[in-house]
Design goal:
The chain is mostly beta strands. It has a single domain, classed as Porin, CATH 2.40.160. The protein has 5 helices and 27 strands. The longest helix has 17 residues. The radius of gyration is 23 Å and the shape is globular.
Amino acid sequence: MKLNRLLIPLFAVAPLLAMGQKKYHLSYRIGTEATFSNEDNAPYWLTANKFGLGGTEKNNFYFRAGADWYKSYRHGWKLAAGLDLAAGYKTPEDFWFQQAYFDVSWKMLTLSMGSKERVNSPLDKNVDLTSGWMTEGVNTRPIPQVRVEIRDYYSIPFTAHWLAIKGHLAYGAFVDGNWQKEFSIPGQTYVRDAKYHSKALMFRVGKKETFPLEFELGLHMATQFAGDQMRKLEDGSSELVEDMPDGFINYVKALIPSPGGSDTPWGEQANIEGNMLGSWNVALNYYLNDWKFRVYLDHYFEDKSQMFWSYGRWKDGQIGLQVDFPKNRWVSSFVWEGLCTTDQTGPLLYEGYVGSFGGLKASGNDNYFNHYIYQAWQYYGIGMGAPLVPGPAFFKDGGITFRSNRMKGQHFGLQGTPIPGLDWRILASFTRHWGTYDRPLDSVKHQFYGMAEVKYTPKRFSKFTFKAALGVDNGDYIGNSVGGTIGVQMKIGNK
């Protein structure tokens, strides 16, 4: 919130910069969505991958209003700003800044400040059809941050467009400390004032105009660090459990993974400071006339054992196939994804010891998405990445951890545009859950998530987009739920 307040004056300045200019773009939008269901939780696909808008509880709604402005200048310079306010019922907060950002761009390079809806991962997927990204995606509200990025692939000079790169470097802050305190029950721990770091670099080799095959390879890493671990007490107050350092050196250690110092717990000194995680991203594109086939791997890791092939082949991650069809009236894209997080380098691996039992070294039980200090890789109760792994907000036990991070899943997505202005998509996901190594479920739980959605923009009322969706959950993990979403958005702007 402090960062947002600092940025608000910049948004007030943006329209003034546009005065007297002929070639600027300014758009306004207002919209609302309401979600209804017959059980305590809203169906999963009516909640997930919506930048944290809405809520996981049944019968929720939100209203948002915002504006975006950008202006291009000579020599490749561009300024952009946006402000997006939202209010809701049965949402994590009654009122919040969904977006509040100011961007300065020069050619391919952008400095972005504030909260902005963006795809955090460098791995391109179909945003409408994918189940999500392993490390970061579009599942939660935007985190306020300062970010330097090359958003789109930039061809490296003197390579004749055969080699291109993109990536980002960002620092920010988690501002859900109050929500964590309210959600927690007495005796549970939570975190406030934690800091955020993310970085990625992606390479692309190939030139589809000359040869129909492209190869992509990259690394994406993210970290929770600094902040205070608190314990909620019976009277509603909290006590400090761990005060994590927040100096310049800690920002450096987030950038360059390093063990914690003497002012951190022993576990941080023996390993890497902070809750550090990431994914290897690999993709192969093949173009055949008007067809496009894309195969990708989003391999998740939380330490060296899964980051590298320390214990044999990678067993955890998401693999996907995306097919973009030649232009037709009915189907435009298809996505299949398979997901597995059951290995986690095994329950426990002993690597031998030297001298005495005290020198024993063990690994395994990586406990994906959970952490003994920062609780979980989540934001307002929703998983930052973790596709098909429901976050803490879906459970009412007051704990801010993932109940089951060992799971396997199959996901399908299909979309099309049968007539101009009418879009449809269908999502279907099947998962099995084993719990965690420390706390396994009493039996394997099965869960289905499904959704059918249509959006319509009438030709005569092109400023309006209407939306309707039906969602169905069925299973014994998060339970059964049938519900729907209706919404409308109006957008106006100059061109």
